[in-house]
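Let us practice reading a record.
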Amino acid sequence: MAARRIAVLIGSLRRGSYSRMLAEALMEMAPDFVQMVKVDIGSLPLYNQDLDDDGTPPASWTAYRDTMRPFDAVLFVLPEYNRSVPGVLKNALDVGSRPFGKSVWSRKPGGVISISSGALSGFGANHHLRQTLVSLNVPVMQQPEAYIGNIATLFSSEGRLVNAGTEEFLQKFMKAFITWVDKNAKDQ
């Protein structure tokens, strides 16, 4: 497999975010030839097309677009907010998809892992995100699907994954995702 750079977008800004803990655990599972990088999305102003149309996009939009463009793939790790995608993540998708014709997302392979503190495990957020990614031309890995429920019970107080069954599942997910990226990267 080829060396790959994968952006990791975390859909939660909370200090003690379980999404962040899960993303860090996944990054540790990546093989040596894969570089996974968390990309900050919390400082992006809300998308307003007028700023692009006027040629005055905020510097943070331009920097974010430039940061995202060279990645081979993207992994989304998100909680479910009101049966949907957190606003911060949706805004990051919108900023990256514009201006029209210059999307940083097109043909960039993706993977989605959703979480929740309850038993439903972020199913609604996962599938809402997938709907958006279809319109952005992101080929999203279909199997294995990854919905992680009861997330608060899976980590130690230090933020380490402590559930062996979940760890085994996530290792299988990561192996499948890296294979997906390798088969679907733009250079193929």
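A brief commentary: The chain has one domain: 4-184.
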